[in-house]
């Protein structure tokens, strides 16, 4: 490929990386290329549609994955961390992360991301193990496994950790510390009467303006008179994740101040 061709391909790969990093739809690919063309970047029509963008994403993901896999092949020990999420199509995916020491420093890298065929312990274990095909005797190198508080992961009778221990009897199982801290904080909110009363009042303020069009309109009018911004709020009890509940509580509190 000639020098100009390399430059054009580099621009398209960089654009693909931007779309992936910003979690934009592939349909934005053509528009971004057109915008670059208007700014003087010379681009041809090869690999210039959303289908090509998807192919380039797959190419990039393989490249990013191959580097840590090559490093892991020479590591005697590493640990695994797994978590699940659902995409926009409702498909449950298992993301596996590995942690190892490189140049004397602990590092974390993505080991793989795969759709779960069945969302029970056997299916999740299969999704985790399927990433290990590129590493010889990987089960002898895994020293620890970490997951969140879900019973399907850490259940004492049939969880993923129990199933993995049959193949890797010596590995250590960790309950994710941030999840444990969140559970402790949420338990405190339920058991502490004063904290619960504050959350109930803030949630009542949210319900008043969320379900009543008149109250919402009056709030916007009042905020305009006070030169304040009427924030769009969400329920403070909608989610169990503390990190996502905090901004919601703050927004409801700001509305209450108006």
As a whole number of angstroms, the C-alpha radius of gyration is 25 Å
Helical stretch count?
10
**What gap, in angstroms, lies between the N and C termini?**
63 Å
- Strand arrangement within the widest β-sheet reads 3-2-1-4-5
Question: Which residues sit in consecutive blocks of at least 5 with pLDDT less than 50?
Answer: none
Q: Fraction of residues in helices?
A: 40-55%
Number of strands: 5
Query: How would you classify the helix and strand content by structural class?
Result: alpha/beta
> Overall mean pLDDT score?
76
Blueprint of the fold:
Layout: H1 3-21, H2 28-38, H3 50-72, E1 78-86, E2 92-102, E3 105-115, H4 121-129, E4 142-147, H5 151-154, H6 160-167, E5 172-175, H7 177-191, H8 193-211, H9 213-225, H10 242-257
Parallel strand pairs: 1-4, 4-5
Antiparallel strand pairs: 1-2, 2-3
Organism: Pocillopora meandrina
Protein name: Transposase
What descriptors fit this protein?
258 residues; alpha/beta; 5-stranded mixed beta sheet; 10 helices; 53% helix; flat
Structure, explained:
With 258 residues, the chain is an alpha/beta fold. The chain has helices at residues 3-21, 28-38, 50-72, 121-129, 151-154, 160-167, 177-191, 193-211, 213-225, 242-257, and strands at residues 78-86, 92-102, 105-115, 142-147, 172-175. It has a five-stranded mixed beta sheet with strand order 3-2-1-4-5. A hairpin with a 5-residue loop joins strand 1 and strand 2. Helix 1 (3-21) crosses helix 3, helix 7 (177-191) packs across helix 8 and helix 8 (193-211) packs across helix 9. This is Transposase.
